[in-house]
Amino acid sequence: MIRRLCAGLAGLAMLSACTVVPTPSGVPQHRPPAHHPARPEPAPPPVVAPPPPAKPTNAADSGVQPGPAFTSFAINPDAARAALTAFRLSCPALQRRADQSGLTRSGDWSQPCAQASGWPDGDAAAFFANQLAVVQVGDGRAYATGYYEPEIAGSRAPAPGYDTPIYKRPPDLIEGDLGDFFPELKGKKIRGKVQGGKLIPYPDRGQIEDGALKGRGLEIGYAADPVEFFFLQVQGSGRLRLPDGSVMRIGYDGQNGREYVGIGKLMRDRGLLGSGQLSMQGVMAWLRANPAEGDAIMRENKSWVFFRELTGPGPIGAMNVAVTGRVTVAADPAFVPLGAPVILQLDRSEANGLWVAQDTGGAIKGANRFDTFWGAGEQARTIAGGMSGRGQAWLLIPRAAAARLAEQRDPAARS
User: Fold this and answer.
1) More reliable by pLDDT, 201 or 106
2) How far apart are CA 58 and CA 364, in angstroms?
3) Per the domain annotation, does 191 fall within a domain?
4) How many domains does the chain have?
5) In the chain, what is the straight-line distance between the N-terminal and C-terminal CA atoms, in Å?
6) What is the predicted pLDDT for the residue at 49?
7) Which residues lie within the region annotated Disordered (predicted)?
8) Closest C-alpha to 340, from 353, 358, 362
9) Whole-angstrom Cα distance, residue 91 to residue 144?
10) Is the dihedral of CA 223, 158, 361, 209 positive or negative?
11) How far apart, in whole angstroms, are the C-alpha atoms of residue 125 and residue 112?
12) Is 12 inside a domain boundary?
């Protein structure tokens, strides 16, 4: 019976792991095996790093703090007069534009603009001190570059030595605001053309240089030097010095929608430029000394700018008003209301003082990022080409807007 029982259990041995042993009384008993393998401890859950904080999308998201009193900056009276003139010029557009920065609302600029129209030029500094409030966006740490209105050799018609076409805006270039479809993308532009019922990217720099727009009657002029024209495109406006000595002024009339790539940084990162070659002049010298490599590098900036002839004052900035040398700065409208005055204190003294944000730029993105405009001529070219300043920035906004932001920051401060 014991054998039969063991035989009967043998088929279950692999499952039950039982052992049958006789007891002194002869009654079989079952007991567990002498050894149970230890169960492995469950693995600890993986450590998941917290997501990085969301990057601010506008000035309000960056945080706004009150700045020093305007009088503490000791603004030069001539600079204050020039800035007041530029501010007056900007006021109509400033009051019409929807402010993407989150700092001001419709109507906030009405009183300052009304006051500016009749304010005496001889007391311009008092206007800024009395009508506007100084605020700091984020930590206020600023970076500023420079741009200017270049003058290059050009011709209205093709001629020997004038081989680089300057195109006007093509009629099939379509531009849209993604905010029309996705509210969170308001202000983000997309450009392209329709082909086969689909919106596709517009030809890039290399494709345009290879003839993508040739034969369509879009040429408004021809440049003598492709390197000079490349940098005129970066500036966004300029002058063509024609063979008869006259000047044709051209201004920005759109862009192909492709990404702007700063070739100076690209060349520096690749070790192509030494410490003394980081200015615009240094980049141009390298491109000319290495024409084949230089052409390939310029094509890595896929952005292409279209132009129109300007017959009135200019050049024209993003607010559709003429910009002024040593007064206008380009800024990101998500962080600066276009038309607002700006104060810079940088490690480049020539850029210190009062400016007015009247323009934008493809590479000018983020809080406290500015591009200072220096006008035309060799001095402007030298300063703008070597401008790279760091320091602090403040904005001037209507007092009503500053008070509202203070209440949002600290409700107990409400009077």
Assistant:
1) 201
2) 14
3) no
4) 1
5) 100
6) 66
7) 24-69
8) 358
9) 24
10) negative
11) 13
12) yes
Greater confidence (409 vs 221) lies with 221
Would you mind telling me the total number of residues written for the chain in this entry? 415
Euclidean distance between CA atoms 286 and 271, whole angstroms? 12
| CA distance linking residue 81 with residue 60, whole number of Å | 29
Answer yes or no: are the C-beta atoms of 400 and 408 closer than 8 Å.
Answer: no
Helix H, strand E, coil C: the string for the chain is CHHHHHHHHHCCHHHHCCEEECCCCCCCEEECCCCCCCCCCCCCCCCCCCCCCCCCCCHHHHCEEECCCHHHHCCCHHHHHHHHHHHHHHHHHHHHCCCCCCCCCCCCCHHHHHHHHHCCHHHHHHHHHHHEEEEEECCCEEEEEEEEECEEEEECCCECCECEEEECCCCCCEEEEHHHCCHHHCCCEEEEEEECCEEECCCCHHHHHCCCCCCCCCEEEEECCHHHHHHHHHHCEEEEECCCCCEEEEEEEEECCCCCCCHHHHHHHCCCCCHHHCCHHHHHHHHHHCHHHHHHHHHHCCCCEEEEEECCCCCECCCCCECCCCCEEECCCCCCCCCCEEEEEECCHHHCEEEEEEECCCCCCCCCEEEEEEEECHHHHHHHHHCEEEEEEEEEEEHHHHHHHHHHHCHHHCC
* Position 25 in a domain: yes
As a whole number of angstroms, the distance between CA 94 and CA 358 comes to 9
Q: Is residue 354 part of a domain?
A: no
Q: CA 372 to CA 328: how far, in whole Å? A: 6
User: Quick check: 238 and 229 in contact, CB under 8 A?
Assistant: no
For residue 330, pLDDT beyond 60: yes
Kindly report, residue by residue over 240-278, the tens digit of the pLDDT: 999 999 999 999 999 999 999 999 999 999 999 987 788
What mean pLDDT do residues 335-339 have? 97
Instruction: Assess whether pLDDT exceeds 60 at residue 19.
Output: no
pTM for this entry: 0.73
Please count the CA atoms within 13 angstroms of the CA of 184 that sit on its side-chain side: 1
pLDDT higher at 45 or 357: 357
- What domain range includes position 23? 2-31
List CB contacts of 290: < 8 A, sequence separation 6 or more: none
